[in-house]
Amino acid sequence: MTNFYEIVLTVLKSDERFIAEDGTFLRNAVYEATMKMDEGLIRLLLSNDMTRTRFFVEADGVKVFDKMGFAWVINNRQFLPDSYTRYKNKIGLASKNGVMLSLSNETELIFPYKDCVLEGGQTKEDQKRSEIFYNELLAPDAIDRLLDPKVFCKAMRYTASGIEENITFSDENNLIIKGNNLLAISSLLKRYMGRIKCIYIDPPYFFNEAKEADSFKYNSNFHLSTWLVFMKNRLEIARKLLTAGGTIWISIGEDGMHYLKVMADEIFGRDHFIGTIPRRTRNGKSDVPFNFSQDFDWLLCYTNVDNKKAPIGRNVERKYYETNDYPGQPWRLADATSQRTATERPNSYFTMINPKTGAEYPVSEKRTWAVTSDTFEEYYKKGAIVFPGDYDFLSIGKPYMRKFKSEDDCNGKLSAVISDFQIQEFLQTLFGNAKNKDGNSEIDTMFGREEFDYAKPENLIKAILEVATSEGDIVLDFFLGSGTTCAVAHKMGRQYIGVEQMDYIETAVERLKKVIDGEQGGISKEVNWQGGGSFVYCELAKLNQTIVEEIEAATYDASLSDIYDRMIRSGFISYKVNPADIDAAVDDYAALSLDDKKRFLMEILDKNLLYVNYCDIDDEEFGISDKDKAFTRSFYKEG
Fold first, then answer.
1. b/e sequence 423-452, b meaning 16+ C-beta within 10 Å
2. Is the Cβ–Cβ distance between 181 and 478 less than 8 Å?
3. For 529, which of 475, 523, 524, 619 could close a Cys bridge (C-beta 3.0–4.6 Å)?
4. pLDDT at position 2 over 80
5. Percentage helix, strand, coil, to 5, in the chain?
6. What was the pLDDT predicted at 294?
7. pLDDT at position 413, please?
8. What rounded mean pLDDT belongs to the chain?
């Protein structure tokens, strides 16, 4: 097999397109040529007996190129093995011959990025990498108790009077959780499945080419396949948390929007897609690709009910009249025509005649009357039709329907939200007052320092909550960031849950404390916010996650050796590894770089035990305090 790979490499290196000036083999250039069925590449592979036999089949005298088979070879790590891959193979940790994520059906688990499946250690902003740091895969059948409910610790309640400890959790509590967001929302399922009315998330964006001006403070340089797996894992759980008629709103950039839309259609159902809403992020830029400034990002909105329901809507302040002929019955005018054509409703295509004056009012063939010629008399007698001249204070030139306030109140139906929420106020918000700099200014004003580069402004979240929720509904944001969603929900009388892994959750907590104290930034004046309320803060109880963070922080081989010794003694290592095999390959291990040694330790760590599972709460080995046990049991409504 080794000879085969060497022959393929020799053949490909004969094409100067696949070799850099320094002699480096350009694997990506070959892969791109493969996907494009490049004629030169195909001729090259046909010129060698072994590659012709391996990558072509003959059908009716025509040779057919096995494009995917060749791509598999190019992306296989054995094709260009490094010292780490050889060491990994020697001790039996290779996974499916090292096939890359983009060509496998495995779950990417470790990212050094914000809020990852298993975060791989990033808790501070300076731990950025250009791509997946550990690049570790975990097959779905290897996920054992990874997504089981977790134990909570360090719980406290923040109120206007101060901090309360030794608390229990109840249904009306607002909640902030620090920890891996996939594991946190998995833990929420036990209590909140089918209860969340609105989810808003602002996840890491996918960029075709990350630029400093566009990327978040945390690293967003995912490969597309990795990013889609990252999103898929979370959206599948989010769907289970939504109540009937709930909605999820996902902020997303131009590069990733269409890929995410296709995947979200699969998860939520194409018939549950509500719409795409644009948001202006800036006022234009000159140094842009194709000389075109893309100044918008987008909101994708989904629900879990069919389009006959009304999961979103808005309350409209209507003008009612009170007249002597209908005492105590306020009424308003409504359009007397419908969008039905004369062909669709022939009985509604007639000339309406005012019985008092004889004045005639024809109707358009394209938009007929809302009543029929047979029912006109009935509607008129009960006062449901108003003609020009009926009231001196009305200036109308055609008939209108009369709608009583009592009918509106009984109906209880919210008015439609048109396209991009085309209510005048919302258009102004989306296209003028919800830019990135507006959100940044709110944070800067509140804390007197630059905490976030791209915080969403409060009025954007307010606009969403106004059309998607009512007071008392539960709102979830599991990419909490600076805490905008929860701050707005608090001010608007919604219950909320926020999840954040990064250390800047401390900023979100401080922000919510200021909200309780009555801060007057953001939407406070608009909603007449005066302060009050409370929220509960807690963390996922760490187990192997502590070791993950130690591995990330290590800067010397000696530190890694100490970590490895403790891992072996604890027994919290992967079932795939035999410590004796590692000891036997000690020279190969010593030759690895510091980063590769970190990668190796991360790979042999048991990922199902990053945090303490609820079922292990009484295991003395995990050292869960009585206070943490009591809070956790109250959260899961047990004990």
1. beebeebbeeebbbebbbebbeebeeeebb
2. yes
3. 524
4. no
5. 40, 15, 45
6. 66
7. 59
8. 82
